[in-house]
Amino acid sequence: MDIRIFETSEELDLYAAEIFRKLINEKPNAVLGLATGSTPVGIYAKMVEDYKNNKVSFSGVTTYNLDEYVGLTPDNDQSYAYYMNQNLFSHVDIPAIQTNLPDGMAEDPQEECRRYEAMINEHPADIQLLGLGHNGHIAFNEPDEHLSAGTHVVKLKEETLEANARFFASIDEVPKEAYTMGIGSILKANTILLVVRGSDKANIVKEALTGPITTKVPASLLQTHPRVTVLLDREAGRMLG
Ligand code: F6R
């Protein structure tokens, strides 16, 4: 594992964007596995900057996102499709047809899982970007006795529904399920780029990277992957070494 700790979030963003830029310039038809959440926002902003400064083109790139809510349309501002358009896709030259997320509106969720997993199998990511949840989750793979290998539907926990309720008109509108890549889908990527920021995640960073491999800390499974790069800000890395 290649672990790098940065003094500032901006330095981390620049470094991460450079990884993507170099990969795409070397391999214009690269496959990128992407994430949502607060962690990648600054990285996507730097990637957009690189595109605007003619340092990179996304015209040949294909992307696969980790997850999406069941039942949300791409124009719902809480959907991950909306997030990706806002933060990256609409600002660069990637054709919409080359961007992939599980289809929140699919009629048959099980069939949608099979379709998505088959695409990942056919086009494994050159690099998979990941954030880390406070409890060690990656994508929507929450700590449990068992984890699923492939793309599957998860029921969101009551606390997640309550936390998300503030973004919706009423709690009934909050999605109760989500599609997520499984741990196996994630580990198929050629390289993994795990990014974590903030002192509130320092403990889980240490557990995930240096603790035992356990389904109780889904991110600990990343220790089994041969090419993982971890980018941390000073606060997230403060419990290491
Ligand atoms: C996002 C995702 C989640 C987040 C994680 C961290 O697509 O799959 O696992 O990466 O919850 O979220 P933030 O970055 O908001 O702290």
TrEMBL record:
Residues 10-225 form the Glucosamine/galactosamine-6-phosphate isomerase domain. It comes from the Bacteria. Belongs to the glucosamine/galactosamine-6-phosphate isomerase family. NagB subfamily. It is an enzyme of class 3 (hydrolase). Catalyzes the reversible isomerization-deamination of glucosamine 6-phosphate (GlcN6P) to form fructose 6-phosphate (Fru6P) and ammonium ion. The active site is at residues 67, 135, 137, 142. InterPro entries: Glc/Gal-6P_isomerase, Glucosamine6P_isomerase, NagB/RpiA_transferase-like. Its EC number is 3.5.99.6. The keyword Heme does not apply. One of its GO terms (molecular function) is identical protein binding. GO terms for cellular component: cytoplasm. This is Glucosamine-6-phosphate deaminase. The gene is nagB. GO terms for biological process: carbohydrate metabolic process; glucosamine catabolic process; N-acetylglucosamine catabolic process; N-acetylneuraminate catabolic process. It catalyses: alpha-D-glucosamine 6-phosphate + H2O = beta-D-fructose 6-phosphate + NH4(+). Pathway: Amino-sugar metabolism; N-acetylneuraminate degradation; D-fructose 6-phosphate from N-acetylneuraminate: step 5/5. Keywords: Carbohydrate metabolism, Hydrolase.
